[in-house]
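Re-running the complex after MR caught last week's input typo. The corrected sequence lines follow. Everything else is unchanged.
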Amino acid sequence: MYRYDTIDREMLADRAAEFRSQVGRRLAGDLSEDQFKPLRLMNGLYLQLHAYMLRIAIPYGSMNPIQLRKLAWIARTYDRGYGHFTTRTNLQFHWIKLRDAPDILDELASVDMHAIQTSGNCIRNVTADPYAGATAEEVDDPRVWAEAIRQWSTFHPEFSFLPRKFKIAVTAAPKDRTAARVHDIGLVLKRARDGALGFEVIVGGGMGRTPHIGPTIREFLPVNRLMSYLEAILRVYNRHGRRDNIYKARIKILVAALGVEEFTRQVEAEWLKMDAQAEGGVDLPDTELARIRGAFAPTGFESLPLQSEPLELEKAANPAFARFVRNNLKPHKKPGYGIVEISLKAVGETPGDATADQMDVVADLAERYGQGDIRVTHEQNLVLPHVKLDDVPAVWAGLREAGLATPNINLVSDIIACPGLDYCALANARAIPVAQNIAEKFRDEERAELIGELKIKISGCINACGHHHVGHIGILGVDKKGEEFYQLTLGGSGAEDAALGTILGPALPYDRVADAVDTLVDVYLRERTDGERFLDTFRRTGVAPFKEAVYADAH
Amino acid sequence: MKALTANRLLDGEVVFWKAGQWVERFADAELFSDDEAATAAEAHGKNQPTVVVDVYLIDLIEAEGVWAPISYRERIRALGPTNHLAHGKQAEGGAVIEALQHAHGAARSTGRVNLIKRK
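Corrected-run output:
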C-alpha cells in the first residue's frame, strides 16, 4: 500500500489549516456564501437537505485498517454512527456540522486522508479495479498507475478549474470492474505480443443527462508515456470544453461535437507539440515509477496448497457458509488465497452504508486475516483482497456477527443506489427505499442464486450517481408534478460489454417499481436459455416481452 | 399558505422562520396567509448571511387538520430521511410529524427549482 511521505503530510496539514481559516472567515462574515461555497466544495463539503455532507477521498478505493478505524471514529464522534460508500469509491458522512469540518480534516490528515478531489471541476478521485494486486486476470497492478495519476493530478495548477468535473478509471483486467467505458477517461492496461505494457485509452464516456459509451482514441499507449498523453487530452478539453453551459461542459460532449477522429487528431497534435517543446518531462521517470511500484509489491504470501481443507470441511457442514463462498469468494492469483467481497447490501439496510461498528469489524478482520488491505468497489461494497482460504471460515464468522455476510455479490439484491431524495439537495426522487423494496422482494437467497447475475442500479435524478444508465435494470427517479416516478431501462452494462439501457416504457409510480422488477425477472426466467444472464437474454429477445409483461395492465 | 425555510450556516440544520427567529421544528414555523408578509420575512431572512443559507418560501397544504409542505422534498426536509426514521426531526414524533408523514400533496419544491436556477 502506498505511504504518504513528509511532503504529502505537510501538504495535508497546510490544507486543513487553510480550510479552518476559511471557515472562520465565513462564520465571521468576511466571506459571503458565494465566495465560500467553491472553497468548501474543494474540501468535499456540500450542503445537503438536512445537514452538511463531507465526502472523503479513498484513492483508487484502497485503505488500511488504521484509516477505516478513523472513519469509524469520525462517524461516532461527528456523525450519526455510520457512513455511506459511494460509486466513486469514496465515503460520505451525511450529518456533518460546518463548525466541526476543520477538526475532521485534521483527524483525517492524521491518517493520511483528506477530502481533496471529491468535488469541484477538477480531476476527481481516481478509481481502479478493487481486485488489483490480487486477481490473476490482470496484466499489471493498476494501483501503480492510479497512484501516479493521483500524484500528477492533485492540485495540478493547469487542471484545477476545468470546464467540469473529470473522472478517470484504471483497470488491468479483461473483466472490467471499474466501469471504464463510462468515464471521462478509461484506461485499460494491456500487454502486447512482445510483452510491452500499454494502455487502451478511452475518452468521452459518461452518464448524466447525456450518456455516452466512450470511444477508444488510442489502442495502445506505451505506459511510460501515460502522463504526457493525459496532459494532452486535458489540454484539448480545457481549451475547447464548453464553459457556457453546465449541461454541455463534460468532455463527452466535446468528443461527440468534434467527432472522435478530430478530437483524437487534436490530442495527438498537442502531444507531439509537447514533445517538440520538450514537455515530455511530465512523463514519469523510471526511478519514480519504481518507487511507486515498490509500495505495491506483494508481501506476506505463503506457499499454500490450492485447496483448503478447513474451507472445504466448513462448506460441506454449513450451507450458509457454502452460499457465501459461492457468491462472495473470488479467485486469487496466489494458490491458497482468495478475494473476499463484503456486501453492504443486507436486506432492509441502505446500500453502501456501514455503521461505525461494522467499519471496526472490517478493519480488525483485514488486520488479522487480510494483510491490512481494504478496498471499496464502485458497486458500494468492500473487499478484503488477500485472505488465506484457511481463514475464510473465520472471516465469514466475523462478518456474520456484524451483519456483513450477505451472500449476494452480483445478484439481484446487490443494488447500487445513490442517496437520492432522502439526503441529496439535487435529487428528484428517493432511491434508497426503492432498493430496499426490491431487496425485500428477493430476500429468498436460493431464488436470488437461481436468477444469477443481475445488476440493478438506481439514481434519484438524471445526474446518474447511481449509474442507472448501465444497470442490467436501471431505475431513474423523476419528478412528475412533484410526485416520485421511476423510469426503468433495460440492457445497460458498465462492464467490458458496456452498453446504455433501453427505456422500457412510461415511468412507474413508487409503489409499482419492485413489482415491475419482479415481473421483469419472471420474464427473464421464462425466456432464458442455459447459461444466459438477464443481460444476455435481454440482448437476444429485445425489450418487447419485458415491456409487454410490465405494462400488461395498461392494455 | 406559506412558510419560510433555510439551512442554518453553522450546522446545516433545516430551520423555519418564526417572528424574527429561526426555529428547528416545522410545528413551530410561522405560517403566512399574506404574500406580502411572507416576502418581507424572506427579505429579512436573506439579510442574515452569517446565520442561514438558502432562504426560500415553501407552499403549504392542509393535511389532517395541520398545514404541511406541498412538496415531498420539503416534507422530507421537515421530517428527516425515510430510510432512518430515528434520524432528523421525525425522531421527536408528535401530531404534526405524523400529519407530515401522511400528507399527500404534490408540487415541485421551490428550493430545488432555485438550486437548479443557481447552477
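None of the earlier attempt is carried over here. The interface with chain A takes residues 7, 9-14, 49-50, 53-54, 70-73, 76-77, 80-84, 87-88, 105-109, 111-112, 115, 119 of chain B (CB under 8 Å). The mean pLDDT of chain B is 91.
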